[in-house]
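Design review, sub-item: ligand-bound model
Attendees: FS, YL, KQ
YL presented the inputs for the uridine-diphosphate-N-acetylglucosamine complex:
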Amino acid sequence: MDKFVINGGKELSGTVRISGAKNASLALMPATLLAPGQYRLHNTPGLRDVATMSRLLETMGLRFRREDNTLSVDSSDVRRYEAPYEHVKKMRASIYVLGPLLGRYGYAHVSLPGGCAWGPRPVNLHIEGMRKLGAQVELEGGYVTAKAKRLKGARIVFDVSSVGATGNVLMAAVLAEGTTVIDNAAMEPEIAALGEFLVRMGAKISGIGTNHLEIEGVDALHPADFTTIPDRIEAGTFLVAAAIAGKKGTAIRVQNCDPSHLSAVTTKLEDAGVMLRVGKDFVEIEPLKEILPVNVTTSIYSGFPTDMQAQWIALMSLARGTSMVTDTIYADRFMHVPELNRLGANITVKGNVATVVGVKKLAGAKVMSTDLRASASLILAGLAAEGTTEVLRVYHLDRGYERIEKKLALLGADISRVSGEEF
Ligand code: UD1
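KQ shared the predicted structure:
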């Protein structure tokens, strides 16, 4: 297992290029099950989660080839309609194969993902959605088995806005007979990207990017090429890196992002006292003397993303004053807090609210990654901390950040990966 060693206090400057969105790629890749043939998915990030999704889809007969950032997919020979536990346990997004397998092949046998590091993460809405579309769904032995001759359009109103359930039902509904309406659909840009991709494949969808989707089922789809949207969470993480460790008086450019996807984060950064200049595909950020305390509450898009909550807490740990960070999406997602406190932060958690009392400085220590975004917050804190920070178990970071240490080093950070030992 690798670890990162960061010698903190180096001032960052320069330009960082943002990769394609992990959460979009993880939906686009299984969508290729819906129509046999050749696809090219441009701007696909080189991440462990993308590799895990490829391995899973390979067990079903798909073939992948990567050239630079283009992932070529051949889905002409799908032979197996199963997602075994060995794969699903590695990555919850594996559940995304349920909708397309059921919609295209009328059968899916998919392991239930179970919980994750910070608590339970149910998939009841995915299952209810498939049932509403007329599938016969059984849960047994830790697996979902879903069958249907052909799915039938239905009206689905989600109790909770769910990215995964919206994506899954959308992929199932595009080949259903008749019209499906999804209300309280997720509006996240990654779901909009999936919708656009499906339209390129011949699907009839209206309301993309809104919480009301209407899908008129078609008899067949065809392969298409697509360019994945930029990763708004990676962009947000680098903006916070610039705010926490950027060289005062110089601008850091976060390039190849979509600023319109980032407004919840950029607004809060401005409230925290940084200067921003927003272009068509970049945000330039200039850190000022001190960080001001700013409360955030996570919510569904276009609110502040839960996937930026841990990074925001890292930033607020160095603010001049006290802030409150509330997570309404995942009430238990605060595994990073005790680790940040090991670096000298002063954070307490009660229920789903973290109270962050800003401290003057953080000091390097050994800390442990527990999940993807928690790991990112520890890296950010390590950049600002005095002395050496070791972030152990960085495989979490490799799931969702493409070469994060290389990108940070290009900005001037002193960060290195140490491989091959048991940490
Ligand atoms: C996706 C993202 C993840 C992000 C999350 C919230 C991917 C691969 N992952 O995860 O990075 O943190 O959105 O923006 O895109 N829920 C239910 N029942 C369900 C499904 C969800 O109650 O069947 C609840 C969850 O417990 C949670 C809320 O709905 O409280 C939102 O979760 P959801 O949007 O489904 O998250 P994911 O799609 O798993």
